Amino acid sequence: MLKLLDSKKAEDITAIDISDVSSMAKYIIIVTANSSVHSRTLAKYIIDFFKENNLNNYLFNKSIDFNNPWILIDASDFIINIFLSETREFYNLEKLFFKGKIIFDT
Fold first, then answer.
1. Which residue in 3, 20, 16, 34 sits closest to 80, CA to CA?
2. What is the rounded distance in angstroms from the CA atom of residue 66 to the CA atom of residue 64?
3. Which CATH class is domain 2-105?
4. CA geometry: angle at 57 spanning 52 and 62, to 5°?
5. HSE-CB for 73 with a 13 A CA cutoff
6. Do the bridges between strand 27-33 and strand 11-17 make them parallel or antiparallel, or are there none, so unpaired?
């Protein structure tokens, strides 16, 4: 999934192992999109990735608001956050999950 995001020009990709600090998921993935259209496209690629790999049952939020500056995809062990730049800076999830272990950072 990280390679997919990278190949689709997601920016500042960060994956954090939060399994020791949170019970809501094992990993949180945070990426920046360069526009609203780009964020919607990235979200659709992620959803398609889960469907194509027979992981559709991992997708918990079936109705995603694609017109939001923060698109959140709840995929069981993975929480994928697609932000526009200014929204990512505002919420600063990396700081919130600072006790987690960064396993991927571009």
1. 16
2. 6
3. alpha beta
4. 90
5. 26
6. antiparallel
Structure tokens at 55: 């992981």
Which amino acid type is present at position 16? Answer: I
Residues in Cβ contact with 74 at an 8 Å cutoff, skipping those fewer than 6 apart: 25, 59, 60, 61
* pLDDT tens, residue order, the chain (106 aa): 899 999 999 999 999 999 999 998 999 999 999 999 999 999 999 999 988 888 777 777 667 888 899 999 998 899 999 999 999 999 999 999 999 999 999 8
pTM (two decimals): 0.91
Cβ(15)–Cβ(4) under 8 Å?
Answer: no
Per-domain residue ranges of the chain: 2-105
